[in-house]
Amino acid sequence: ALGGAPRGLMADTISLLVWGGLGIVAMLLARWCNDRLILSRIANTTALADNRRVGVGAALAGSYVATGFLIQGVIVEGGSPQLLATLFVAGQLVLIAAAWVYGRLAQGGVQEAIDRPEGLAAGVSLGGFLIAVGILLRAAARTPADTWSVVLGVFLAYAIVGLGLLAVTYM
Q1: Could you say which of 2, 5, 146, 159 would form a disulfide bridge with 94 (CB–CB 3.0 to 4.6 Å)?
Q2: What is the pLDDT of residue 2?
Q3: CA dist., res. 83 & res. 92, Å (int)
Q4: pTM of the model
């Protein structure tokens, strides 16, 4: 249902429900990471709903798109739910690190800039940076390997090299 040859209506339906459910749970966990760890100094719901801070929405959207890329990489490669869970946690840690690196590159104050009425540019920039990291994570998640050590090693290498290259381009 999600890629490859069809295996029958019932098998494809079950696969779609399982992977769809796991994807929804992963996105809900990503929301928690966004609220508590990536944009920790911003009350996201208040900033979006009450204060209409579009920059906050752009940064959050970038994080969600990055998470979606990661999930898609695991599913397309035909990974197991355990692999999805492991790479999801590793991916969220990389996204948290990426937001921190971006804050250092922007010389601090990124969250404060995003949470202003005129913070759209800052939010789009952070969101774009996170999407770029998500594209790298998708590529890392699609690495065919037989052992966990190879998968995690390649994932870590992509994360380190990718963050380094992105940091150079944002300087």
Answers
A1: 159
A2: 53
A3: 14
A4: 0.86
Q: Give the CA distances from residue 159 to residues 81, 89, 95, 152, in Å, rounded to whole numbers and listed in that order.
A: 21, 13, 9, 10
Rounded to whole angstroms, how far apart are CA atoms 77 and 95?
21
**Which tokens hold the place of 53?**
């801070």
Alpha helices by DSSP H, 34-170? 44-45, 54-77, 81-105, 110-114, 120-141, 148-169
Spatial distance between the Cα atoms of 25 and 27, rounded to a whole number of angstroms: 5
User: pLDDT tens-digit profile of 57-109?
Assistant: 999 999 999 999 988 887 777 667 787 788 889 999 999 999 998 888 887 78
* Of residues 164, 139, 159, 145, the one with CA closest to residue 70: 139
Question: Is residue 103 classed exposed, middle or buried when 0-12, 13-18 and 19+ CB atoms within 10 A define those classes?
Answer: middle
Q: How far is the CA of 77 from the CAs of 17, 138, 140, in angstroms?
A: 18, 10, 10
Residue type at position 18 = V
Using the Cα atoms of residue 78, residue 84, residue 88 and residue 89 in order, give the sign of their dihedral: negative
Contact 130, 159 (CB under 8 A): no
Identity at 12, one-letter amino acid code: D
**How many angstroms separate the CA atoms of 126 and 72, rounded?**
21
Is residue 32 within 8 A of residue 92, CB to CB? The reply is no
